[in-house]
């Protein structure tokens, strides 16, 4: 055999090795997800819907998911992408308000009305007005 054939076979062997490795890793991750899927768990589906698991039907491979109070949908078990962990914000113990400016500062995305700003809001003459 020539060296080019040996290199091609080596590359093919490496590709096959990584395919099997990724398949085993994906299977292990899926099994870990299935173990954490229990009634009462908050989950997110593959299509971005959040809800709480009400019941799991192992035989039919279905999950009853409550997406709003009183609204329960039935989805395939494999469409659950992940279990959502509650976000806990760390608040420092000495978190006191330093100044009154922090109370009036708008949050990101919050609309600010003209009365809340200190800018001049007088009307400018329009084009054509003399």
Automatic annotation (TrEMBL):
Main location (coarse class): membrane
GO cellular component, one term: plasma membrane
TM region(s), chain numbering: 6-23
Protein's cellular compartments: Cell membrane
Keyword terms, alphabetized: Cell membrane, Membrane, Protein transport, Translocation, Transmembrane, Transmembrane helix, Transport
Keyword Metal-binding: no
Keyword Chaperone: no
GO BP: protein transport
Signal peptide positions (record): none
Membrane topology: Single-pass membrane protein
Disordered: annotated span: 91-130
Family: Belongs to the YajC family.
Protein name, as recorded: Preprotein translocase subunit YajC
Organism of derivation: Cryobacterium suzukii
């Amino acid at each position: 055999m020539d060296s080019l054939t040996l290199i091609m076979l080596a590359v093919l062997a490496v590709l096959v090795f990584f395919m099997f490795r990724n398949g085993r890793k994906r299977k292990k991750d899926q099994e870990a997800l299935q173990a954490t899927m229990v009634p009462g768990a908050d989950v997110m589906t593959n299509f971005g819907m959040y809800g709480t698991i009400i019941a799991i039907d192992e035989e039919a491979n279905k999950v009853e998911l409550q997406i709003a109070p009183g609204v329960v949908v039935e989805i395939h078990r494999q469409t659950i992408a992940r279990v959502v962990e509650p976000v806990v914000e760390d608040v420092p113990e000495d978190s006191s308000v330093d100044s009154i400016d922090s109370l009036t500062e708008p949050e990101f995305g919050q609309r600010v009305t003209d009365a809340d700003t200190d800018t001049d809001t007088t009307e400018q003459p329009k084009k054509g007005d003399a």
